[in-house]
Design goal:
It is built from two helices and 34 strands. By secondary structure, the protein is mainly beta. The strands form four sheets. Strands 20, 21, 22, 23, 24, 25, 26, 27, 28 and 32 form a ten-stranded antiparallel sheet that branches. Strands 1, 5, 6, 7, 8, 9, 10, 11 and 12 form a nine-stranded antiparallel sheet that branches.
């Protein structure tokens, strides 16, 4: 979709500013730490970026001002090498209450956050960036045409760890004074009477974890009525040795339908549960969900998600699994009914590599149209009806960075990712409020291990 002209101009301006900061700008701030045992193939890569946040509290009984992380972008547990992950908003404005006297606490134009990880036999590298245009804080006391924040961390095959970051400003003004067009030294501090302290290019290093956190502008507000923090532009990266990387996710229903190019019906991942990248230590984490009733789709009486994973020294024996289960299903005006629908995705690493399967997946009393499915369906069973194509026990494999394929076995040398979808529906003729091309997923589980 094309951006409005004003947005394109602001974004173009930000991108031109961003081009002033070369990789060398980050490289010049690189900090090295001693080598440690570990190889890039099993490095743990972490990165995220956001456009800013705010939390101001009052001792005078005035309303709290709180803004979550704007357009947050986070690297997945198992990022694909060279793939850029992005998030963006076109504008943001946060007002204080009339009584607070704060006016516009925070406003900004286009905010873009992005990150990328690359890894091979020689090194693992993660890079994050946050770009914000037309910044104004506290009724314009702090303002900038653009703020560009970068952070990067790297580890090589010998275990040498490095990290660095930078911030560049265009037209930065504080209390009406032009401060800079370009970079400033890390943790540059300016006191603004009646407001508090401004920290530019704030950088926090953790050598043990090879982590760097960079904040473009941090305002430590300290007034008679409010205290707290406002931040603009934040990026964090971390790369450190790890025996294995894990991922596990589960949800019970999602749907999307476009009619004449307009999103008519969308249901996000219901009862979604994701495992932390470090795993659960081998203790299953579960999440029951409330029943779901949709006039377009039908009903699911009971939802249940579970994930589990554990990393082991040396990687061998590391595992991850996810379970997505639904009871008492009635979908698309009774076209699909079942007492139990369950997907399970399992991945484990041993001396020969990584291996995934769908053991534990099952159906109980599944009926599609006039067809009764006796017992479990074979992997990737396809049933074509007049109104829809339906896949049962759909299994998708991605191994060693290759493309995702419909495949019931999944083995890799260093990485396997496996997605199991109990029922995948592609609508061919409008039915139950869903138009042609609508997609529905029921009980989807995903697991992966790299290491």
């Amino acid at each position: 979709m094309q951006k409005p002209a004003g947005v394109r101009r602001a974004l173009g301006r930000t991108i031109r500013v961003a081009s002033l900061i070369s990789t060398a700008a980050v490289a010049s701030a690189i900090v090295a730490t001693p080598a440690v045992a570990g190889t890039p193939a099993t490095a743990s890569l972490v990165g995220s970026a956001n456009g800013g946040s705010a939390l101001l509290t009052s001792s005078a009984g005035l309303p709290t001002v709180k803004v979550g992380r704007i357009a947050q972008q986070s690297m997945p547990c198992l990022p694909a090498s060279g793939v850029v992950y992005r998030n963006q908003v076109n504008s943001t404005r946060v007002l204080g209450s009339v009584l607070s006297g704060l006016g516009t606490v925070l406003s900004a134009g286009v905010i873009e956050n992005e990150g990328v990880a690359t890894f091979n036999a020689n090194e693992a590298f993660v890079f994050e960036r946050s770009r914000t245009a037309n910044v104004s804080l506290l009724k314009g006391v702090i303002a900038a045409e653009a703020v560009d924040v970068k952070a990067a961390s790297k580890i090589d095959a010998a275990g040498n760890k490095t990290r660095g970051g930078s911030t560049e400003f265009l037209g930065l003004k504080i209390a009406g004074n032009t401060i800079i067009n370009g970079t400033v030294a890390p943790n540059t501090t300016i006191v603004v009477p009646g407001v508090g302290t401004v920290i530019l290019n704030e950088q926090v290093h953790d050598p043990a974890l090879n982590t760097i956190k960079v904040t473009g502008i941090r305002v430590k507000v300290d007034t008679l009525t409010y205290k707290g923090d406002i931040r603009i532009g934040y990026a964090v990266t971390r790369v450190q040795p790890a025996d294995a990387q894990l991922d596990a996710q589960a949800f019970e229903l999602s749907a999307k339908a476009n009619v004449a190019g307009i999103l008519k019906t969308t249901i996000g991942r219901q009862n979604f549960l994701a495992m932390e990248c470090k795993g659960t230590g081998g203790v299953e984490k579960s999440q029951p969900g409330v029943g779901l009733l949709s006039k377009d789709l039908g009903s699911l009486a009971v939802l249940y998600s579970a994930v589990n994973g554990k990393r082991t020294t040396g990687g061998n024996g590391s595992f991850a699994y996810a379970i997505a289960e639904v009871a008492k299903t009635n979908l698309l005006d009774g076209l699909i009914t079942a007492d139990v629908i369950k997907s399970q995705s399992n991945t484990v690493k041993d001396a020969s590599g990584t291996h995934s399967n769908a053991a534990g997946s099952k159906f109980l009393n599944l009926k599609i149209g006039d067809t009764v499915i006796a017992g479990n369906a074979a992997p990737n069973t396809k049933i074509s009806l007049g109104v829809a194509d339906i896949w049962l026990n759909r299994q998708e494999c991605q191994a060693d960075g290759g493309p995702r394929r419909i495949k019931s076995t999944c083995d890799g040398i260093s990485e396997s990712r496996f997605r199991v979808t109990a029922i995948y529906i592609k609508v061919k003729v409008a039915i139950a409020g869903l138009g042609v091309g609508a997609e529905v997923r029921v009980a989807e589980a995903f697991s992966g291990v790299r290491g």
